[in-house]
Write a structure and sequence with these properties.
The chain is mostly helical. The chain has 6 helices and no strands. Helix 3 packs antiparallel against helix 4. The longest helix has 29 residues. The N and C termini lie close together (11 Å).
Length: 133
């Protein structure tokens, strides 16, 4: 959706965002059903990926996949996307293990100000990718 804008690639981009939102909703509902509580730390660090390991793995895999896409190496895009997804999922499992050991310490989410700043930075990066493609 970034390297070669066309109706098909933009549709794929939107489909990916919808899939991400659907998975996030299922994760939150399941966590609520199993634990009986809403936990901001789960939403923030696992679903939204603000944990250090989730952020780093997702960023590295995203950059590698985007660079591969610019070089039209689609098989490499798929590999990096898979690696990023697996690392993201494993970081979520790691957070859950740490949370169960010390729930009070890990239940808090990132601050709204920090999440807002990171969202603005991510949108600015996306805008730059679209402008200079």
């Amino acid at each position: 959706g970034v390297g070669a804008t066309s109706p098909a690639t933009l549709a794929a981009l939107v489909a990916g965002i919808v899939a991400l939102a659907a998975v996030a909703g299922v994760q939150l509902a399941r966590f609520r059903r199993l634990n009986g509580v809403w936990v901001g730390g789960f939403l923030s660090r696992v679903v939204l990926g603000t944990g250090s390991l989730a952020s780093a793995s997702y960023a590295i895999a995203s950059v590698a996949a985007i660079l591969a896409a610019f070089d039209a190496r689609w098989w490499l895009v798929a590999i990096w996307s898979t690696i990023g997804g697996v690392a993201y999922a494993l970081s979520g499992r790691r957070w859950l293990h740490v949370y169960r050991a010390e729930p009070a310490r890990h239940a808090q989410a990132e601050s709204v100000v920090w999440l807002s700043l990171m969202t603005v930075a991510a949108l600015a990066g996306l805008a730059l990718l679209l402008i200079y493609r």
